[in-house]
Design a protein that fits this description.
- The chain is mostly helical.
- The chain contains four helices and two strands; from the N terminus they run αββααα.
- Strands 1-2 form a two-stranded antiparallel ribbon.
Length: 131
């Protein structure tokens, strides 16, 4: 961990899930020990690779670093993604939060309903989804 102590781009830390780190471990769904997580703090992923220093260092060198996003990393985005991000950045927080709610609703409510309708239509049409 000392190799990353003063890094402006990386945080390497250990957390005691039985003491003051308990809330953090619950937030990131740590169930077993040791657990290694990586990624954006809003979207942590489970690390499944080797546990030696060499394995971890190789993984970090090959997979971690800045990613596409608003602000200073916008140049890392492809043109289509950049345009979408720029559209979102122009929205008010309230409008963007409303768009997020609508997208979640479409995913959690509308998508399953549409899949059921497709299955129904296929069964009614003898296996064909064409109308």
């Amino acid at each position: 961990m000392a190799d990353f102590q003063d890094s402006p781009k990386a945080l390497v830390a250990d957390v005691d899930c039985t003491a003051e780190g308990k809330d953090l471990c619950e937030k990131f769904e740590v169930r077993g020990y040791p657990t290694i997580k990586y990624g954006d703090p809003d979207e942590m992923k489970d690390y499944q690779g080797g546990r030696s220093y060499e394995d971890l260092k190789k993984f970090a060198d090959e997979n971690l670093g800045p990613t596409c996003g608003p602000g200073e990393n916008i140049e890392l985005c492809d043109e289509e993604t950049r345009k979408r991000i720029e559209t979102y950045v122009k929205m008010s927080v309230g409008k963007l939060e409303g768009k997020i709610r609508n997208t979640i609703k479409a995913f959690e409510v509308e998508l399953p309903m549409m899949k059921k309708v497709v299955a129904y239509l296929k069964s009614e049409k003898g296996g064909s989804a064409e109308l």
